[in-house]
Amino acid sequence: MNETTGGVDEGDPGLVKKFMFVNRKAPYGTIYALEGLEVVLISAAFDQDVSMVFMDDGVYQLVKGQHTKAIGMKNFSPTYRALEGYDIEKLYVEQKSMEARGLTEADLLVPVETLSSADMAGLMRSQDVVIDF
Amino acid sequence: MKFGIMINEGPYTHQASDTAYQFVQAAIKKGHEIYRVFFYHDGVNNATRLTEPPQDDRNVVALWSKLAEEHGIDLVVCVAAALRRGINDDNLASGFRISGLGQLVEAGIQADRLVVFGD
């Protein structure tokens, strides 16, 4: 139990659910991506089955070589590399979103699994909790 | 059924909070349980008691406070999101409490359904 988890005893619940965090928005311009990542990191403390999805402009969150100094924003993209240390290793990118933006897996910061829209829909259906940012 | 609710947008600019409020009311009427309502992103702005809408408009903050009082609903505001936007214990409306993101994850674990209201 600690302050960041809101005083919830993260060890106990015993229940393991499939949590999927769906990232749909560009990393800068709005706060959704940054605050969304905060939720993902906290969820790691609860020993749940966590996965992340990047689709639509959310794919841009994972692009290598982000330089944010000129817009006065903190570059939080290195955090995606740290997810592995939190045992968050299921990262899925919707192929169509990636291709529509002229990107390939080689452009991304971290290893991901690319999925067709149909496979992504199936994966979403299999979740217990889906939160989108 | 036991519902967890997440609200990600502030009042007035966006209808998310109104819709969530109506959903919660309907769920209670049907005999369902609301495990918790969690306010995140600009949704924390639903918790300031400094809101003063015109008299002919609904008072979203007051509606939540009243609902919490009448039905004992747990209204939780994310601390990091709240402090970033100037919401703290000094201006928190009645019925709300400030706590951590773990409260959201816990709601996801404990509720049968987590319903997200946002953009």
Keywords:
heterodimer, A: alpha/beta, Hypothetical Protein Ychn, Chain: A, 5-stranded parallel β-sheet, 24% helix, B: 119 residues, alpha/beta, 34% helix
Overview of the structural elements:
The complex is a heterodimer of chains A (133) and B (119). Chain A is of the alpha/beta class and 133 residues long. Chain A has 4 helices and 5 strands; from the N terminus they run E-H-E-H-E-H-E-H-E. In chain A, strand 1, helix 1 and strand 2 form a beta-alpha-beta unit. Chain B has a single domain, classed as Hypothetical Protein Ychn, Chain: A, CATH 3.40.1260. In chain B, 34% of the residues lie in helices and 22% in strands. Chain B is built from 4 helices and 5 strands; from the N terminus they run βαβαβαβαβ. In chain B, strands 4-3-2-1-5 form a 5-stranded parallel beta sheet, sandwiched between helices. In chain B, helix 1 packs parallel to helix 2. At the A-B interface, helix 1 and strand 5 of A face helix 3 and helix 4 of B.
What secondary-structure arrangement, pairings included, does this model have?
The complex is a heterodimer of chains A (133) and B (119).
Chain A: E1 18-23, H1 32-43, E2 49-54, H2 78-82, E3 90-94, H3 95-100, E4 113-115, H4 117-125, E5 129-132
Parallel strand pairs in A: 1-2, 1-5, 2-3, 3-4
Chain B: E1 2-7, H1 16-29, E2 33-39, H2 60-71, E3 75-78, H3 79-84, E4 96-99, H4 102-110, E5 113-117
Parallel strand pairs in B: 1-2, 1-5, 2-3, 3-4
Please give the CATH class of chain B.
Alpha Beta
| Helix-residue proportion of chain B | 25-40%
Structural class of chain B, by secondary structure, is alpha/beta
What is the gyration radius of chain B calculated from CA atoms? 13 Å
Q: Given the helix and strand composition of chain A, which structural class is it?
A: alpha/beta
Query: What's the alpha carbon Rg of chain A, rounded to whole Å?
Result: 15 Å
CATH fourth-tier homologous superfamily of chain A: DsrEFH-like
For the largest beta-sheet of chain A, the strand count, sense and barrel status come to: 5 strands, parallel
Distance between the termini of chain B: 25 Å
